[in-house]
Design a protein that fits this description.
The chain is of the alpha+beta class. 24% of the residues lie in helices and 39% in strands. It contains 6 helices and 11 strands. It starts with a helix and ends with a helix.
Length: 261
């Protein structure tokens, strides 16, 4: 009798293990489907050290991405040419940009969609009767870049460890040092470089598609300040909601496409 019970227990554990592996594999395959879709929209809630902000995006996979980001994230003070020039969809508090890839982009301004190279040709913005510049904002950095969700998913899946699925169907795991470094900062950061990083992630799947994912990372970055570098500890949590998969609309005018070639 004891032998029978032990055998049944072993079979139950084997079946449960296979079921968990199958659930994990299914969730990973569902997450990977995002990059195969023609388009999607997304919202990333970022908590980085003592700051929190939200990024809204629309992505045509393999083509263009439109993002709305906080002005103080995209436009640190550096060049007075853009002051007062953000307009239409952009405001003092938010900036609208269209990217082709991760770094090449244009920003919506009162003079139309401009590349970073075109900002330097603008005269100073006019002042109001109070002496303040209209729509005063700081300026676009040379390192402004984005990270697209389907690319994040590729990095996570390509180097994750300790994958597991809980009773609620949420898949979680650990990030490798390389993946954590890549996800800690978007591409194109010339003055900031990750030295080490560690993190974890979670995937939420519904209807066979990824609907949300969360990445938590702690790391040390090297920051260039005044010609010298210093090491800074940092931590961030990014929770990204995926929506309107296959139904997202984003029209990019020919003049914008020409600037992004």
């Amino acid at each position: 009798m004891k032998s029978v019970l032990l055998f049944c227990s072993a079979v139950a554990l084997l079946v449960a293990g296979r079921a968990r592996a199958s659930s994990t594999d299914s969730a990973i395959l569902a997450a990977m489907k995002l990059g195969d879709q023609p388009n999607y929209s997304w919202t990333a809630a970022v908590v980085r050290d003592s700051r929190s902000y939200t990024i809204e995006g629309k992505t045509l996979v393999g083509s263009y991405t439109q993002v709305t980001v906080p002005a103080n994230l995209a436009l640190p003070a550096s060049n007075p040419a853009l002051r007062g020039r953000v307009g239409r969809g952009s405001t003092d508090s938010e900036v609208v940009a269209i990217f082709k890839g991760d770094e090449k982009h244009v920003v919506e301004t009162s003079e139309g969609w401009l590349t970073p190279a075109e900002f330097s040709t603008l005269p100073p913005a006019p002042r109001t009767g109070s002496g303040r510049r209209r729509g005063l904002v700081a300026d676009l950095p040379l390192t402004f870049a984005i990270s697209q969700p389907h690319e994040d998913i590729g990095i996570i899946i390509g180097s994750s460890t300790d994958l597991r699925v809980d009773d609620g169907g949420i898949v979680s795991g650990r990030l490798s040092d390389t993946a954590a470094r890549l996800l800690l900062l978007p591409p194109g950061q010339e003055n900031v470089a990750p030295q080490q990083a560690a993190g974890s992630f979670k995937f939420w799947i519904s209807g066979g598609m990824l609907t949300r994912y969360e990445v938590q990372i702690n790391g040390i970055v090297s920051v260039e300040i005044g010609g010298s570098r210093r090491l800074v500890k940092t931590s961030q949590t990014v929770t990204t909601e995926i929506k309107e998969v296959g139904t997202t609309k984003l029209t990019v005018p020919p003049e914008i496409k020409a600037k992004l070639e």
